[in-house]
Write a structure and sequence with these properties.
0% helix; single chain; elongated; mainly beta
Length: 103
């Protein structure tokens, strides 16, 4: 993800829905490119309740995302891993709209 526009610092978050046999899903910043976000910072929407606390990309900035997935134990695993990851990105005036996906 990258912020190159002139609309102010961007807030970024990832919403995960429907996970099938996933026991855990943890998208985090990998830290190689991001200037303003520390490596390991969670990017999962469910980890936040306030838009002002969301990870912020300054200008110019970019971030690579690591996604760690854990499945259920073998005796409970049906073989189905499904779902949707949605990246939400807001700057300036529309940043408050990100609150719709927070816990």
């Amino acid at each position: 993800m990258a912020n190159t526009a002139g609309q102010g610092d961007a807030r970024v978050i990832i919403e995960a829905t429907g996970s099938g046999d996933l026991a855990s899903l943890n998208p985090t910043v990998d830290g190689e490119k991001a200037t303003a976000i520390d490596p390991g910072t969670p990017l999962r929407a469910a980890d936040y309740s306030d838009v002002d606390d969301l990870p912020k990309l300054v200008q110019p900035d970019a971030v690579d995302v690591d996604i760690e997935m854990g499945t259920k134990p073998a005796d409970q695993f049906t073989g189905e891993i499904s779902g949707t990851l949605t990246i939400h990105f807001g700057t300036g005036g529309n940043r408050s709209e990100l609150s719709d996906v927070l816990s």
